[in-house]
Here is the input.
Amino acid sequence: MKQRKKTISTKELDKIFDEGKEDVLDYFDLENARQPGLEAKRVNVDFPTWMVQSLDREANRLGVTRQSLIKMWLAERLGR
Here is the structure.
């Protein structure tokens, strides 16, 4: 594991980045980085058997899991 460098100000970080002489990623804690709003939240949804079977057929056709298929379709529908 790479050790993170000392804490610096955003102004100092901008200067280091602009000069391009040093890797600015050394100043970030990438192991604990998170993207706001993308935290997972578990929900339960009941589907009729025929719908689960149809989802599974489509997921198999696309080579993804049922959960991935549902997430993809919901994301498309919600316009993300």
